[in-house]
Amino acid sequence: MKTVLSLACLAILAAAPTLAQEAAEADMRTVQLRMSAEAIRADIETLSSPAFEGRGPGGIGEEMTVSFIAGQFAEAGIRPGMDGSYFQAFELAAFAPAGQGEIAINGRNGPIMFTASDDYVAYAGQAAAELSIGNSRIIIGGFGIRADEEGWDDYRDMDLSGATVILFRGDPGTATGDENLFGGLALSVHGLVDTKNNLAAELGAEAVFLVHTDESAGYPWASLSSGGASGAQYFLEEDDDVPLTLFAHVSEPAARRVFEAAGLDYDAVRAAAATPGFSAIETELSVSGAHAGSVSVTQTRNVIGMIEGREAADECLVYTAHWDHMGVNPDAPTEDHIFNGAVDNATGTAMLINVARAFGELETAPRRSVYFFATAAEERGLFGAKYFVQNPPCPLPQIVGALNMDAHFPFADAWSAMLVPGLGTNELMTELEPIAARFGRALFDDPNPAAGAFYRSDHYPFIAEGVPGLFAVGGPDAEQVEAEPAAMEGFGWYMANGYHHAADEIDRPYTWRLGGLADDARIYFELGWRLANSDRWPNFTAGTPWRALRDEMRPDASP
Which CA distances in Å does 547 have to 179, 307, 448, 537, 539? Predict the structure, then answer.
């Protein structure tokens, strides 16, 4: 009898963890179902209201935004994540432009007229009140890449000292679709604007003019010329990169005029620049330019809350969403000068708040700690996320992964797919797949990977340091596109008229449908919950540039 009883006790003990896991799963499902589109909508309405002044860094708009987010964390029972504070402050050097800058190009047959907004959008290359270049010789630098692993050097035997370099956007792989060049259609790190600018500056260039095409950028020229991207600029005070003097986006028609004045065929040069062996071309053209403004130091703040893990408190999962948008630009060519940023990124910030609320409602804290990180100055260069990974409250080797929410789409009651830029890059995406499937969604990679969305949001600073990151948004598959044309009309309107425009407001141009976006939040909540209750360490896929970094910091990560 004693033996029988002992075996029965052992069986009960062995079943106990399973019963606890079932209870935790049921609790998660109950909380998940309580997450609502109505609650998310209310937070979007608050964050995108004109009173928040477009959520630009510094000023009353930031104060209202960060106070609101911290207050919502506190109400949800989310404790401060930074030594007793919800705020991680850091400084930005701010450049407020006085006008749109001037660019004048001179050639053998006289000047080539450039008009601000129509032909170029100028930026300060550094935080200085007076920025100018005079008779800077123009070099056609192709894609502006030096990559030893690819055997590629666009600047071989070329002196860039004091020059202005005209560059094509992207890289040879994205330009040709050749899978043997760089990342093929997927933009490589060498195609990033910052990578090009930093290399040109290190080699002595004064200015970079980047040729914009809607296809290579992933957004229309109007998103630049509308004023949303050309207001105040910010620079991270701790940045050690060698600065340019000027940077400008140049429209393709304007670039073609420059090439013609240089006696070059634009299409032929672009094709040649995408082939091995290309070398930068010195022209007989020169450019003078100036950009002036006021310079100040702005303090901005990341907002960070956390739930302490019940067993492995030193292991951390991070949720991110950027709270900032473009602020107010009095020089914008519209009557409305407030860039409300309802989609970008009041949606993601509202999702972050609601995911935090869901974790706060759980009866049992997750095994690992969870951080809820609302980032500052994403629109200005991912500065908040960069500062976080340089000064993390949880050491980078202890971070399981970063789940980033950015510009989710309020155009359907339900989505049939989930767009994941860089799909297959790391195991967070593998973990996402079955959860998305339970919501009737299949995962798809970015249909335009050449535009580099994978690199352009707050998960990437984590990835660059060897921590897996994920950015995913709900959207339609081909069948839903055909069945619900109104959903695609919403996408089309937003990209043409809303993205980085003052028109990015709630219920514009028609009443938002938030069911699909609410499911995005439920999916993110469940994914984070499962990762936070796991003991696994997701890794990058073999062959990616970040695998070695992860292997070095976490030898116990997935092989």
Answer: 20, 29, 24, 13, 7
Nearest alpha-carbon partner for 140 in 276, 256, 245, 290: 256
Per DSSP, the three-state class of 526 is: helix
- Which pTM was predicted? 0.88
Closest CA to 98 of 297, 209, 232: 232
Q: Are 162 and 430 in contact (CB under 8 A)?
A: no
pLDDT tens digits, 549-559: 999 999 999 88
Please report the DSSP string for 43-106 in residue order. Answer: HHHHHTSGGGGGG-SSHHHHHHHHHHHHHHHHHTTPEESBTTBSEEEEEEEEEEESSS-EEEEE
Please give the backbone phi and psi of residue 299, each rounded to the nearest 5 degrees, phi first: -95, 130
Strand pairing category for 442-444 and 417-419: parallel
How far is it, in rounded angstroms, from Cα 517 to Cα 391?
A: 31
Is the backbone of residue 110 left (phi > 0), alpha (psi -120 to 50) or beta?
left
Q: How far apart are CA 246 and CA 545, in angstroms?
A: 30
> What is the per-residue pLDDT across 363-393, written as a single tens digit (0 to 9) for each?
999 999 999 999 999 998 999 999 999 999 9
Query: Which run of H or E residues covers position 392?
Result: none
Cα separation, 194 vs 180, in Å, equals 23
**Residue 430: CB partners within 8 Å, gap ≥ 6?**
538
